Amino acid sequence: MLSHRAIWDALDTLAERHGLSASGLAKLAGLDATAFNPSKRVSKDGRERWPSTESIAKVLEATNESFDSLLSGAVSYFQPPSQTGQGTTVPLLGFAQAGSGGYFDSAGFPAGQGWDEVRFPGLGDGTAYALEVAGDSMQPLYRDGDVLIVSPTEQLRRGDRVVVRTHEGEVMAKILHRRTEKQVELYSINPDHAPRIFRPQDVDWIARILWASQ
Known about the structure:
Layout: H1 4-17, H2 22-28, H3 53-63, H4 67-72, E1 88-94, H5 95-98, E2 116-120, E3 129-132, E4 147-151, E5 161-166, E6 171-179, E7 184-187, E8 196-198, E9 203-212
Parallel strand pairs: 1-3
Antiparallel strand pairs: 1-2, 3-4, 4-9, 5-6, 5-9, 6-7, 7-8
């Protein structure tokens, strides 16, 4: 089931992909400029407000995007099953630790000692592991202390949310904007952080984000 936060995050990601703000996306679709503002997403009495199917259709038409591509920006926020104690236990590591040596093999899989464990809904292909966010480059999408479930084997597509580790040990959660033979271009949700561009040989591994704690 798609959560309230997921659909709004998907629209924010779509806007970012086209170099627009939420207001800019609304105007492009012929809607009121404030239609997608954060203040419109929750009513004064705390009730969640959802974008209408009509407004989503207008956005997709204006951006020439498909509904599947819209949802690709929300993949990390599909609501997990009810908390019944079921799920899968996966290795957990902090971003700071992930930047140091000895925790991953050459393919980006967990290795060595010092990993904790966390339970999550059981998504992925059995190779998933968890990383705890540090820093603010992905705010308001991911906040310091959030837990991300990632997979090093999932196919990567433009617009996917990913965790990237460089050979210098820097670990970051970003949006994969472009990946070619010559460069890897990464975007941040937080406008205070500029895009990052790396040569493919400077990237140790890229893992797709499957799920995130809320």
